[in-house]
Amino acid sequence: MSFVDLIRQILRTHPEGMTPQQIRETIKANYPDLYGPESHRRNVEKKHYKNLDHALLSQIYMASRTDRQIVVDKTQKPIRLTLASGQGNDVSIPDEEKNI
What we know:
Strand content: 5-15%
Low-confidence stretches: 87-100
Order of helices and strands: HHHHEEH
Number of domains: 1
Radius of gyration: 16 Å
CATH architecture: Orthogonal Bundle
Mean pLDDT: 88
CATH class: Mainly Alpha
Shape: globular
Structural class: mainly alpha
Strand order of the largest sheet: 1-2
């Protein structure tokens, strides 16, 4: 299972959405083998990241930017990630905008 697949799986169980920090805590608790892999440790040693938490958060943010099924709600802080409804980027257009 890819990392993006894991994030999608976690978000499926939380349809109200989750913050990247909540996703990080879920991964730490339920998927400890994905917390602190060798690549994250090397990047912390090289001072690319402050610690393993930041390395994991970075990976979560990157996945949210590259996967079209993950919707990022930037209207609130911290941001919330949810899964797009339907397949791909299907977006519902309100009736009043359809006639424009």
